[in-house]
Design brief:
With 444 residues, the chain is α+β, with helices and mostly antiparallel strands. The chain is 36% helix and 22% strand. It has two domains: 3-151, Chloramphenicol acetyltransferase-like domain (Chloramphenicol Acetyltransferase), CATH 3.30.559.10; 189-442, 2-Layer Sandwich (Chloramphenicol Acetyltransferase), CATH 3.30.559.30. The longest helix is centred in the middle third of the chain and has 28 residues, at 177-204. The N and C termini lie far apart (65 Å). Keywords: Acyltransferase, Glycerol metabolism, Lipid biosynthesis, Lipid metabolism, Transferase.
Length: 444
């Protein structure tokens, strides 16, 4: 049976998981109905297309060597019906009920002995509009790989059969002197960079969280999902008027939305800036799907104490420009790159310590997941909205993910259900903040 060792960062994500802190990411996709298409047909279609994706037939097994390592192996008893289920929603507003049930389903860790993914078809009483909830373990997929897996399921991008990569033949000889020298130089460079990142992490660590109790909590094991839709053209208007990137504008909206929410709930604005971890993909276009997680990140202080929305945007632009000038391979935000320098056994036994250390480095994850610009559908039913979902780090109560699609930016807010019962209000604050930012920019 063929196998593939987990890449170091994948292995780290695998061992970071606990019952209270499942390490899966996800997406809740809403589809408009089409006459003649019912939930059972969608379920069958999902099962057929998911079963044709080789990566979704793989599970994780321990290996003898390297010690502490693990490998992806084909599940000999793979049954796609274990992974694709239908859930009928109770009466009520479909979107509201879908978000509530999706939050509950996101609480449950994925079974470790099976391929680590699940899909749920959520249907209402009338069997018309439906939604699909996708859960993928972070060891299986980062944001870009999750999009690639989705590409194998949606109508326009699905392929009738699984496409296998041609195996790379083993080398027939020993490396020459130049290859050895090149490897040594690369290794020294990697270790030097790792030492620099480690030193940056130590300098950036804090004993006190910048956001106080609002963004920090002991896990209750519960999850609540809230969603928001932002007008992408409004984001672009602000970008054109104020400069920077669309992502800068969205990060400023997050900062302003958090400010509104903190003030409304009586938490007050923290004295120190809460820190956002902003992931950066290092995946090259066309990289093979089995090449492991390719992530780094930037650390960004969110200017929630600033009352002027344009000043908040300017502060975000300055900080992100500084991050980009340094590059994704430097600074404390690049902590994920340290995974490549650690042996597998260190990931196995160091995961609890690493998980607890996250709260000393950042307060909230804010990630952007790009989607194809073309209109997408499933079974001929148009994709109406898609809300990405990120996992919660240990000791944190909120994660924010954003995906532009169809002229709108879809925001998925994943919160600890007991620590942040008012996450729906935060979603409203984000919409209000974009309106204020757009108005302030237009008034200049």
């Amino acid at each position: 049976m063929s196998s593939e060792l987990l890449a170091p960062l994948d292995l780290a994500f695998w061992h970071l998981e606990s019952a209270e802190h499942p390490m899966h990411l996800g997406a809740l996709a809403h589809f408009d109905p089409r006459p003649g298409v019912v939930g059972g047909q969608v379920l069958d279609l999902l099962a057929e297309r998911a079963a044709a994706i080789p990566r979704l037939r793989m599970c994780v097994r321990g290996v003898w060597l390297p010690v502490g390592g693990a490998a992806w192996v084909a599940d000999p008893g793979f049954d796609v019906r274990r992974h694709v289920r239908r859930v009928r929603l109770p009466a009520g507003n479909f979107d509201t009920e879908a978000a509530r049930v999706a939050g509950e389903l996101m609480e449950r860790p994925l079974a470790r002995g099976l391929p680590p993914w699940r899909m749920y078809v959520l249907t209402g009483e009338d069997d018309g509009a439906f939604a699909v909830l996708v859960k993928l373990h972070h060891a299986l997929a980062d944001g870009m790989r999750a999009v690639a897996i989705g590409a194998g399921i949606l109508d326009q991008l699905a392929t009738p059969g699984a496409r296998r990569r041609r195996p790379v033949p083993p080398s027939s000889g020993l490396p020459g002197p130049r290859q050895v020298a090149g490897f040594a130089r690369d290794r020294v460079g990697e270790l030097t960079r790792a030492v620099g990142i480690g030193a940056s992490v130590l300098r950036a660590g804090r004993l006190e969280l910048g956001a106080g109790s609002a963004l920090a909590a002991h896990s209750s094991g519960t999850r609540r999902l809230a969603t928001a839709v932002l007008d992408h053209e409004d984001v672009q208007r602000v970008r054109r008027a104020e400069g920077g990137t669309a992502n800068d504008v969205l990060l400023a909206v997050v900062a302003g939305g958090l400010r509104r929410w903190l003030l409304e709930r009586g938490s007050g604005v923290p004295g120190a800036q809460p820190r956002a971890l902003v992931p950066v993909s290092r995946r090259r276009p066309g990289a093979p799907p089995g090449s492991g997680n390719k992530l780094s990140a930037y650390l960004l202080g969110l200017p929630v104490a600033e009352s002027d929305p344009l000043a908040r945007l300017a502060a975000v632009r300055t900080a992100m420009d500084r991050n980009k000038a340094a590059g994704p391979g430097r600074g404390a935000g690049a902590v994920a790159l340290l995974a490549d320098q650690l042996p597998p056994l260190a990931h196995r036994f160091g995961a609890p310590l690493a998980g607890s250390a996250a709260r000393m480095l950042f307060d909230v994850l804010v990630t952007s997941v790009p989607l194809p610009r073309s209109e997408l559908s499933l079974g001929g039913c148009p994709l109406r909205a898609v809300y990405p979902m990120a996992p919660l780090a240990r000791g944190q109560s909120l994660a924010i993910a954003l995906s532009p699609y169809g002229g709108r930016v879809h925001v998925g807010l994943v919160a600890d259900g007991k620590a942040v019962p008012d996450v729906d209000r935060l979603a409203t604050c984000l919409r209000e903040e974009l309106g204020e930012l757009r108005g302030a920019s237009a008034a200049r």
